Amino acid sequence: MEPPQHHHHHQADQESGNNNNKSGSGGYTCRQTSTRWTPTTEQIRILKDLYYNNGVRSPTADQIQKISARLRQYGKIEGKNVFYWFQNHKARERQKKRFNGTTMATTPTSSSPNSRPASVNVKLDQEHHLLHHNKSYPSFNNGNLNHANSGSECGAVNASNGYMSSHVYGSMEQDCSMSYNNIGGGGWSNMDHNHHYSAPAYNFFDRPKPLFGLEGHQE
Amino acid sequence: MEPPQHHHHHQADQESGNNNNKSGSGGYTCRQTSTRWTPTTEQIRILKDLYYNNGVRSPTADQIQKISARLRQYGKIEGKNVFYWFQNHKARERQKKRFNGTTMATTPTSSSPNSRPASVNVKLDQEHHLLHHNKSYPSFNNGNLNHANSGSECGAVNASNGYMSSHVYGSMEQDCSMSYNNIGGGGWSNMDHNHHYSAPAYNFFDRPKPLFGLEGHQE
DNA sequence: ACGATATGAATGAATG
DNA sequence: CATTCATTCATATCGT
């Protein structure tokens, strides 16, 4: 989403202290009536820098702490904000990238290969784009290898990867009957609720893809 | 835990018994083709009750069966949903702590599984805030379990700390009064409001390699 | 002011 | 058990 560069729609250019309090009326000091974190430009700048210039995509809890501590200089921020920011940033970048080439052709801006995605004008049909059964995760490396010294300079780092998502939707507009999602066919969806499962069925923990057999223990 | 005032979340309430469409002819894709389980308030409430009041964290397959069977009264649900719910809830609770560094001093007494800290006001928002006709979560009869099993070892362990979750009791007819407040005190927010931290701003992570970028600029 | 978009937040699902 | 992905809701912000 937000390409490394600036573009329209910042909130303000207060590169100084913190500007969080946008509670216009009154402006309580200690009561952050702001429902959600509104990052300052400095914070965003740093976050983007980490994201693009340092390849940080999914910081660990440790990193999150440090980042948030660092960003706290510029305004109120908490760990979850950092966490969510990276999550969202990554997700949206991918999401938008994914639309490139599927059912959407509206590409007026002619995606420049060497440039930022520049807030696509295309209208994402996030309003009703149902059924996305893209669950094929290639075993590609996430590219999040903590390469401390990557590009370390401007320019979009190799952050992005291939991620070929074929967008293979099965057009299975399942009618909302009783069955739900029978992914993989055979694990969880014991849709035969009507019937009685006489067996203790400890295959409950049998995930669609056998990964670790079973558990049977709790913490 | 959560920031004070939040309304969030959608309004998805399945019909308790039968939420189907016109099955068969025509198909008629019913809306909400959400491929994923959307818990009802009652379901959430019960789950949290189990989690907080009964200390259920990683229910066994048997427990999952019973729990899901019971929750099915309030909407469609499958075992895996229960499984995932507990997994996620637990994981996220932990995660929050990690991010914020365990500095949550918001745990005065707590640890009373069957008592709700009076400190919490009527703020029972906690999470799902459905605003629909079906929002009534008062005294639903919790005794009419049509569980196929008479054992009914639905968790009901001593929450406090060590849950021996493994053995039967009577039915957990505990009065499902609302209690599921965050006894753990964990929370994303509120860990430290003083944004003083005039401290090392150039100390992000422990870069294993002394070559971590300066984030001084971006454009 | 509204509507559209951008984006923070939440959470189900899945993978390792 | 932790980490990540996907999807969706909620809301702040900008454009008109």
Q: Could you walk me through the main structural features you see in this protein, from its secondary elements to its overall organization?
A:
Two copies of one chain form a homodimer. Chain A has 219 residues and is mostly helical. Chain A has a domain at 56-95. In chain A, 21% of the residues lie in helices and 0% in strands. In chain A, helix 2 crosses helix 3. The two termini of chain A are 39 Å apart. The model of chain A is unreliable at 1-30, 104-186 and 190-219 (pLDDT under 50). At the A-B interface, helix 1, helix 2 and helix 3 of A face helix 2 and helix 3 of B. The first copy, chain A, binds a DNA duplex (16 and 16 nucleotides) through helix 3. Chains A, B: Residues 102-119 have a biased composition (Low complexity).
Explain the layout of strands and helices.
2 copies of one chain form a homodimer.
Chain A lengths: L40 H13 L7 H11 L7 H21 L120
The first copy, chain A, binds a DNA duplex (16 and 16 nucleotides) through α3.
Radius of gyration of chain A: 22 Å
What's the β-strand tally of chain A? 0
- Output the number of helix runs of chain A: 3
For the largest beta-sheet of chain A, the strand count, sense and barrel status come to: none
Query: What does the oligomeric state look like here?
Result: homodimer
| SSE string of chain A, helices as H and strands as E | HHH
